[in-house]
Amino acid sequence: MGFIEEIQRRRTFAIISHPDAGKTTLTEKLLLFGGAIHVAGAVKSNKIKKTATSDFMEIEKQRGISVATSVMGFEYKDHKVNILDTPGHQDFAEDTFRTLTAVDSVIIVVDAAKGVENQTRKLMEVCRMRNTPVMVFINKMDRPSKDPFDLLDEVEEELKIKVRPLSWPIGNGTSFQGVYNLFEHNLNLFEASKQTVEESIAFDDINNPALENIIGEEPAGLLREELELVEGVYPEFAVDDYLHGELAPVFFGSALNNFGVNELLNCFIEIAPKPQPSTTDTRTIAPNEDKFTGFVFKIHATWIPITETELPL
Question: CATH says 3-310 is which class?
Answer without folding.
Answer: alpha beta
